[in-house]
Amino acid sequence: MPPRRTTMHYPTNEVLEQDQFLAIMDVYEHHWLLEHTHDFPEMICVLSGNGTQYINGSAIAAKEGEVYLIPIGTTHVFRPPANAATSASLQVRNVIFRAEWLDELTSIIMDTEVKELIFWLLGQPGSALQGKPPWLKIADTQSEFRLLTERMKSLVGQRLPLSQTRLTARVIDLLSLLCTATDNGRQQYSEWPPKLEMHPVKAEILSAIQAMPLSVVSLKEIAQKINWSERHLSRVFQQHFEIPFKSYMQNYRLQEGMKLLVESTLTVKEIMSHIGFEDTNHFYELFRRATGTTPGQYRRRERNGSLN
C-alpha cells in the first residue's frame, strides 16, 4: 500500500486581494512546502534552476524554460534538488487567476477553443474536459511565455488609466497562445514554437544570433555571417519572425539582462555592456517600459521580495 501523502489547500483569498483578478509572483521553491490544491487555476513558469514537480503524486523533472498549467483540483508542488547548495536554486513564476473572473471572461471570448481551455482550467464538467489531460507542460524554447508574463507582471497592481483593460487583453493573448501551443489543451507535453515547424531559414538566423556574444549582434553582423545583404535579411526576418529585427533583439537583450540582474553579481553597467546596450538612458527607458521598474529596483524585488 503506497504511503499516504500529506497535502494542504489554498483558498483564493490567501493569494488574491478582493479587487484582484490576477496575481503574478516570482518565488524560490523550498523543501518544506507541502503538495497542495487551490481554488484557482495556475500557470507556472520555471525561471531558473531545476528540480522536481510533483503532480497528483507523480514526479516530473522540471527545469528552466518550462511552463506548467495546473487546473483547479490538481495537487502539485515544486521541490529543488535534494543536494541544492542554496535556497535560491529553483525559481518559478506563479500566474494565478481568479476563477470567477475567468468564468465571466468566457462571455466575451468568441473562440470556442479558448472557452473550452478556460472550462478545463476551472475543472468544470462537460465536453470541455473530454480528451484533455489533467495538466499541461510546455517547453518555452524562445521565452515567449516568460516575456508575455513579464509584461503582464508590470501591469499587475498598477492604478494607471486603462491598466486593467490592458492586463485583461494580455490574459486573453496568453490563453490564445496556450491553446495554440498545446493543440487546444489536448497535448500534454509540447514545445513552443514546435521544432518541426521552424523554417530552415528561421533556424539559420536564430543559430547565427545565438552563436555570437550579445554585445556584438547586429543586423550587419548577422547578414555577413550568413552571406546576405542587410536589406534582404531585414525583409526575411520580418517575414519569419513577424517582428522587426531591432524589436526582436531589444526583447532578447532585455530578457537576458533580467536574468543577469537576478543571477549574477555584475553591475548594471557591466550587464548593459554584456547584452549590447551603450546608451544608459535608452536602456533604462526600455527596461522600465518592459517591467515597470528600474534595473536596480527589479534586482532588489526579485532577489529579496521573492524570498519573503
From TrEMBL:
Q: Classify the source by domain of life.
A: Bacteria
Name the Gene3D superfamilies for this protein.
Homeodomain-like, Jelly Rolls
| Keywords linked to the UniProt accession | DNA-binding, Transcription, Transcription regulation
Q: Which residues cross the membrane?
A: none
Pfam family example for this protein?
AraC_binding
- Show where the HTH araC/xylS-type domain sits: 203-301
Which PANTHER family does this UniProt record tie to the protein? ARAC-FAMILY TRANSCRIPTIONAL REGULATOR, HTH-TYPE TRANSCRIPTIONAL REGULATOR EXSA
**Protein name listed in UniProt:** AraC family transcriptional regulator
From which lineage does this chain's organism come?
A: Bacteria, Bacillati, Bacillota, Bacilli, Bacillales
